[in-house]
């Protein structure tokens, strides 16, 4: 399996699992939706979960893999504000939670770079 295919498979599993979690256990995701967005947080949680499932599906077949990589880049950029919100909300939490929230910020950049790799 080529490096690009392995990266696409990894992202597909990651986004697919995240999508399922967004739709089946939405409360934790609702809590990190930035409060400045209009409308209920649940709408954003469900929309991002559905988008994650669609993007995961696009990453699997070779014919749509490049599009899936582009869509993954866009999706990962779009949900980054939720990671920032989590880091802000957890700034006074226990050290373990703070580390998790802060680690998600650079990790998002790594995932975006992986999605870009899939587009090549």
UniProtKB/TrEMBL annotation:
Record Pfam families: MauE
Predominant location: membrane
Membrane topology of the entry: Multi-pass membrane protein
Annotated TM spans: 67-88
Keywords from the named record: Membrane, Transmembrane, Transmembrane helix
InterPro entries: Methylamine_util_MauE
Domain Methylamine utilisation protein MauE as annotated: residue spans: 8-82
Localization (cell): Membrane
Source organism, top-level taxon: Bacteria
Residues annotated as signal peptide: none
Gene Ontology biological process terms in this record: methylamine metabolic process
Cellular component GO terms held in the UniProt record: membrane
PANTHER family, A to Z: DOXX FAMILY MEMBRANE PROTEIN, MEMBRANE PROTEIN-RELATED
Protein name: Methylamine utilisation protein MauE domain-containing protein
Organism: Brachybacterium vulturis
């Amino acid at each position: 399996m080529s490096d690009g295919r392995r990266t696409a498979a990894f992202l597909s599993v990651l986004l697919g699992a995240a999508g399922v979690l967004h739709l089946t256990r939405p409360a934790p995701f609702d809590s990190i939706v930035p409060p400045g967005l209009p409308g209920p947080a649940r709408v954003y949680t469900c929309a991002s979960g559905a988008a994650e499932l669609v993007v995961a599906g696009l990453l699997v077949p070779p014919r749509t893999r490049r599009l899936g990589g582009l869509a993954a880049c866009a999706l990962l950029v779009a949900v980054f504000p939720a990671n920032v919100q989590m880091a802000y909300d957890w700034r006074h939490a226990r050290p373990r939670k703070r580390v998790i929230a802060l680690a998600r910020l650079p990790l998002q950049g790594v995932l975006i770079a992986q999605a870009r790799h899939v587009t090549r």
